[in-house]
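Whiteboard transcription, Tuesday session. T.W. wrote the structure tokens on the left side:
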């Protein structure tokens, strides 16, 4: 087990910036130019990485229209699996160009292989790391095959029981590959807040001691920001070209502006989380002067005794701490003191007693 992993030049783990992945999925709407534009937008929005999905309808299912392959609820209700994947898949002949586009604009790129042939294809392209989708977490042979390539793996855990997660994790480790991160995920599209159970991120981190993140299918940025506040090291979010896009993922994908705002909110959340610290920091230092302290609220003549009505705890902080008020009462001042003078020890004789 590794408490962090390295992808290209970036370290993913506690103490390092959240690794933000823009999931393209079907948002290219069948156009390679759209796909390239999404890569460019991801970079401009501040994402660290773009993710593709590598399959064909024939590598992920079969062309069958019986009841087992019919989608009878949810976002894709009314489709058969083969029909859905025909509309959604990213043609393999695009991959090389998309990898080159990512390199040109300076953003990481990787993909989810859904079978052995896709893995071999991505190996030929020189992919640097892999994703395992949440629906494939039970495909232990596939996980072992991908892990055997010795490259970092980010694996989604949506729907998986803890025992299924452990089995998948052990499948990776059994190949000698210890470079693994997991994503908490609600595998519904879109996900609703009550199903997300983001507190599980903390539990997974404690139990597994590896980087944990969120594959976020919910609407808006709230899930991502809350996940980061709970320690998420990775955020994966679908990025599209806007509401007018016609593809199976458009309804639950962020527009370019929404994605940019999410990245900004995540980075602001990181700043707000900060480090364990006590005492004044940043702009607070300037406000220390407005703390309470002891001031003379009436004028005194030299030798006069300080009584309770002569001093008071007020703002600002130029006098001594209010905690010393009992030590001040009954002392004599060594010189005349005007009202509004901060109380200081040099105004009293050192051996003065009540």
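and on the right, the sequence the group agreed on:
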């Amino acid at each position: 087990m590794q408490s962090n992993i390295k992808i290209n030049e970036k370290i993913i783990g506690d103490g390092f910036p959240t690794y933000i992945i823009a999931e393209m999925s079907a948002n290219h709407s069948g156009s390679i130019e759209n796909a390239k534009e999404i890569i460019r937008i991801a970079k401009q929005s501040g994402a660290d990485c773009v993710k593709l999905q590598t399959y064909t309808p024939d590598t992920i299912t079969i062309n069958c229209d019986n009841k087992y392959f019919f989608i009878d609820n949810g976002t894709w209700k009314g489709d058969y699996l083969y029909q859905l994947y025909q509309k959604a898949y990213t043609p393999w002949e695009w991959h090389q160009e998309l990898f080159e586009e990512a390199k040109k604009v300076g953003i990481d790129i990787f993909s989810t292989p859904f079978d052995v042939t896709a893995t071999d294809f991505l190996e030929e392209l020189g992919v640097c790391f892999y994703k395992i989708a949440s629906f494939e977490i039970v495909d232990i042979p596939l996980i072992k095959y991908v892990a055997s390539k010795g490259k970092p793996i980010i694996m989604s855990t949506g729907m998986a029981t803890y025992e299924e997660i452990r089995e998948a994790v052990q499948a990776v480790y059994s190949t000698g590959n210890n470079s693994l991160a997991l994503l908490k995920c609600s595998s519904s599209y879109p996900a609703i807040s009550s199903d997300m159970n983001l507190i599980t991120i903390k539990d997974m981190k404690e139990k597994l001691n590896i980087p944990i993140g969120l594959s976020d299918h919910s609407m808006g940025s709230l899930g991502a920001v809350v996940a980061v506040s709970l320690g998420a090291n990775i955020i994966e979010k679908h990025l599209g070209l806007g509401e007018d896009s016609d593809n199976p993922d458009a309804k639950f994908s962020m527009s370019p502006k929404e994605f940019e705002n999410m990245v900004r909110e995540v980075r602001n959340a990181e700043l707000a989380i900060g480090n364990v610290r006590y005492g004044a920091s940043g702009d607070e230092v300037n406000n220390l002067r407005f703390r309470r302290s002891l001031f003379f609220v009436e004028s005194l003549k030299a030798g006069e005794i300080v009584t309770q009505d002569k001093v008071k705890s007020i703002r600002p902080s130029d006098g001594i701490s209010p905690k010393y008020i009992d030590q001040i009462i009954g002392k004599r001042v060594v010189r005349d003191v005007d009202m509004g003078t901060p109380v200081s020890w040099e105004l009293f004789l050192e051996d003065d007693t009540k």
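Someone added at the bottom: The chain has a mean pLDDT of 94.
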